[in-house]
User: Which sequence fits this backbone?
C-alpha cells in the first residue's frame, strides 16, 4: 500500500512507574481498513486506545493522524483533530439524561451552528445509517436493549462524519444475532463510506468476519498481520488465543473464508 | 479546496464548489433554504466545480432535492452528484428506515402537565407511606433475630453518620449558642436581666436548637449520602442482585441505615447540647463576667427535669425521618444520572422539611401535655 496511512503509530512507549505496558508499539492503518486490536487482560489495550484517542500522552513515540502528529499538539489543535474521530465505548457511554436523538445531536450542536430542522434531518440520517427504528429517537438509553445502545452509540460516533472510527468492544454483551448484525453494519459502513475502523475486541467471530488486519499486543510489543498470518504465528500466547477451545472454530471458519 | 455555496434566486440556481465537509453544513443549509424558497419551475444545481461531500451535507442536499421534487419543481443537475447519493438512496429503501425522527420528546399542554404533577405527588406520598410501612414491618420481623438485624452494618452506619459527624456538629452547636447568648445578653442588658441569658441559652439549646441543628446537619450530610449510595447501587443493578439472592433490600439496605441513624442522632444531640451549653457558659463568663458557680446555679434553676429529655426524645424520630427519606429517594433512582442528582436533592430538602415540621408538631404536643 503506497497511500498515506490515516493513523500511524511509531514506537509508542507507555509506562506506569516501573511497569512498562508498551515498549515500542508501531503500526499503520489505512483508509477503508478495519483494524483489530487484541490482547489479554492487562496487555494495555485500553492504554493504547487512550493513547490513540489523545487522552493520554505516551512516554515516548508518536501518533500521526492524517499526517499530523497528535502527540505533540496543543490541547486546542488536538480538539480539532478529535472532530475527525468517532468513538464508541464498551458500555455505550450514552448520556443517560438525554434521549437517543439528543445524544446523536450533541456533537453536532457543540461543533456546528445549525437550526433545529437541519439537526433533526441529520439525526434522522445517523439513525438510518445504523439501522435504528424511528421510535428509538425519543427514548432514553435505559429504555433500549443492549444492541440498540451499541447502535445508538455508533450513530453518535458517526455524527460528525469521522474519518476514523474507534470501537471499543463493539459486540461485547450482545447475543450472536445482534453481534453478527453489528458486524454487518460496520462492514457496510466501511464499504460505503470508506471509513477507517480501529476496533478493540475479544470477539473472535467479529475479528474473523470484519478485520482486515489485526494487531496482537503481547509482552509490550505488537504483532501486526492479517488474521491468517496471526493464526500461523507461533508466539505461545497467540497460539493459546487462537488454538484454544474457542479459537479453533475461528481458525476453521477462516479456512472456510478462503474457500469462498 | 474551500467550500462555497451561492444561490442565485432570480435564476433559481445553486452553485456549489469545493469539498463540502460537515463543518460547512450551516453554510450549505442556509443556501439550500434560499434555493428551496426561490420561485421558478426549473431549479438548477450546479456541481461542476463540486468536490467531495461528507455524508452529512450530502444528505442535506439529497433531502433538499427530494423536497423540491415534492413541491413540483423539476431540478436540472449539472456536474457529478456526490458519491454518497447512491448510499443514501440505498438507506432510504432499507426496510428499517422509517419516517422522520424527533430531536426532543413531545411536550404536554400545561393542563396535562399540572395533572401529571399532581398525580405524581399523590403517588409519591403513597409510595412514601408504603415504604415507611414496609420498613416498619421489616424492623418488627428482624427484631427477633440478631442475624437479621445485621449489627455490624448498623454499627458501621452509626459510626459513619455519628462519630464522623461529631466535629462539625460540635462546632456548629458551639457557635450558634455563642451567637444566641450574645444577642440575648445584648437585649436583656437594658432591663438588668442579663442573668437570664443563661436561661435563654440553656432552654433554647436543650429543647430546640441542639437537636434541630444536629438533625438539619445530619439531613444534609447523611440524607444525601444515603440517597446517593442507594441510587448508585440501584443504577448498577446491585439492588436487583440482592433481591435475586433472596435477600430483602429493606432488611439489608434500609433497616441498618435507619437503625444506625436512630442510634447516632441522639448521641450527636447530646454532644451538641453539651457544646451549646459550653459556648453559652463561656460567653456569659467572659462577656457578662458571671462567675462559674453562679452560672451553674442559674443553669440548675433554669433547666427543669424534663428540659433535656424534651430535646433528646425528638432525636430518634428525626433520625427515622431522615434515614427513611434518604433511602426511599435513593431506591427511587431509575435509569439516569440526572435522576440520581435530582432525587438526592429531593432527599435533603424533604428530610429537612420533615424534621422542621415534626419539630413543630412536637412543640404543640409538649405544650399541650405541659412537658
Assistant:
Amino acid at each position: 500500500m503506497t497511500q498515506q496511512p490515516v493513523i500511524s503509530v511509531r514506537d509508542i512507549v507507555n509506562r506506569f512507574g516501573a511497569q512498562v505496558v508498551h515498549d515500542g508499539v508501531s503500526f499503520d492503518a489505512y483508509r477503508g481498513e478495519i483494524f483489530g486490536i487484541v490482547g489479554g487482560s492487562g496487555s494495555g489495550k485500553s492504554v493504547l486506545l487512550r493513547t490513540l484517542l489523545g487522552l493520554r500522552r505516551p512516554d515516548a513515540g508518536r501518533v500521526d493522524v492524517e499526517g499530523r502528529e497528535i502527540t505533540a499538539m496543543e490541547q486546542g489543535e488536538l480538539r480539532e483533530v478529535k472532530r475527525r474521530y468517532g468513538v464508541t465505548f464498551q458500555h455505550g457511554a450514552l448520556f443517560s439524561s438525554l434521549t437517543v436523538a439528543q445524544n446523536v445531536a450533541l456533537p453536532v450542536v457543540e461543533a456546528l451552528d445549525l437550526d433545529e430542522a437541519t439537526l433533526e434531518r441529520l439525526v434522522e440520517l445517523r439513525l438510518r445509517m445504523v439501522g435504528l427504528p424511528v421510535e428509538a429517537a425519543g427514548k432514553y438509553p435505559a429504555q433500549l436493549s443492549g444492541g440498540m445502545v451499541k447502535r445508538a452509540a455508533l450513530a453518535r460516533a458517526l455524527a460528525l462524519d469521522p474519518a476514523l472510527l474507534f470501537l471499543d468492544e463493539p459486540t461485547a454483551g450482545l447475543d450472536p444475532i445482534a453481534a453478527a448484525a453489528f458486524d454487518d453494519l460496520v462492514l457496510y459502513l466501511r464499504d460505503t463510506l470508506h471509513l477507517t475502523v480501529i476496533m478493540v475486541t475479544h470477539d473472535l467471530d467479529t475479528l474473523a468476519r470484519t478485520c482486515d488486519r489485526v494487531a496482537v499486543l503481547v509482552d509490550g510489543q505488537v504483532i501486526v498481520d492479517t488474521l491468517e498470518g496471526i493464526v500461523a504465528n507461533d508466539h505461545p500466547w497467540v497460539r493459546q488465543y487462537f488454538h484454544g477451545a474457542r479459537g479453533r472454530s475461528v481458525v476453521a471458519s477462516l479456512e472456510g473464508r478462503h474457500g469462498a | 479546496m474551500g467550500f462555497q455555496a451561492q444561490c442565485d434566486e432570480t435564476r433559481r440556481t445553486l452553485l456549489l464548489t469545493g469539498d463540502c465537509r460537515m463543518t460547512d453544513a450551516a453554510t450549505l443549509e442556509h443556501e439550500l433554504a434560499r434555493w428551496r424558497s426561490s420561485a421558478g419551475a426549473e431549479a438548477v444545481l450546479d456541481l461542476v466545480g463540486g468536490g467531495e461531500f461528507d455524508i452529512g451535507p450530502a444528505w442535506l442536499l439529497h433531502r433538499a432535492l427530494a423536497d423540491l421534487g415534492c413541491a413540483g419543481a423539476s431540478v436540472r443537475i449539472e456536474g457529478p452528484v456526490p458519491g454518497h447519493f447512491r448510499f443514501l438512496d440505498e438507506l432510504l429503501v432499507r426496510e428499517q428506515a422509517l419516517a422522520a425522527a424527533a430531536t426532543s420528546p413531545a411536550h404536554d399542554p400545561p393542563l396535562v402537565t399540572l395533572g401529571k404533577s399532581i398525580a405524581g405527588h399523590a403517588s409519591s406520598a403513597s409510595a412514601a407511606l408504603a415504604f415507611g410501612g414496609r420498613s416498619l414491618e421489616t424492623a418488627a420481623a428482624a427484631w427477633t433475630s440478631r442475624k437479621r438485624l445485621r449489627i455490624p452494618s448498623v454499627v458501621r452506619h452509626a459510626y459513619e453518620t455519628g462519630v464522623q459527624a461529631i466535629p462539625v456538629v460540635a462546632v456548629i452547636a458551639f457557635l450558634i449558642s455563642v451567637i444566641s447568648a450574645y444577642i440575648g445578653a445584648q437585649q436583656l442588658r437594658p432591663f438588668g436581666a442579663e442573668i437570664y441569658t443563661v436561661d435563654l441559652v440553656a432552654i433554647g439549646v436543650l429543647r430546640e436548637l441542639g437537636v434541630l441543628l444536629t438533625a438539619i446537619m445530619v439531613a444534609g450530610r447523611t440524607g444525601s449520602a444515603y440517597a446517593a449510595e442507594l441510587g448508585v447501587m440501584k443504577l448498577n443493578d446491585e439492588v436487583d442482585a440482592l433481591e435475586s439472592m433472596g435477600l430483602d433490600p429493606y432488611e439489608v439496605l434500609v433497616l441498618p441505615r435507619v437503625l444506625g441513624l436512630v442510634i447516632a442522632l441522639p448521641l450527636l444531640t447530646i454532644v451538641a447540647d453539651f457544646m451549646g451549653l459550653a459556648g453559652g457558659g463561656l460567653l456569659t463568663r467572659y462577656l457578662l463576667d458571671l462567675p462559674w458557680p453562679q452560672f451553674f446555679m442559674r443553669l440548675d434553676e433554669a433547666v427543669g427535669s424534663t428540659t433535656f429529655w424534651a430535646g433528646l426524645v425528638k432525636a430518634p424520630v428525626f433520625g427515622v425521618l431522615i434515614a427513611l427519606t434518604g433511602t426511599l429517594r435513593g431506591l427511587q433512582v431509575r435509569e439516569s444520572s440526572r435522576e440520581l442528582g435530582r432525587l438526592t436533592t429531593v432527599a435533603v430538602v424533604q428530610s429537612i422539611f420533615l424534621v422542621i415540621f415534626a419539630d413543630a408538631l412536637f412543640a404543640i404536643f409538649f405544650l399541650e401535655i405541659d412537658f
Notes: The first strand of chain B starts at residue 4 and ends at 8. The domain at 4-93 of chain B is CATH 3.30.750.24 (Transcription Regulator spoIIAA). Chain B has two domains: 4-93, 135-369. The radius of gyration of chain B is 35 Å.
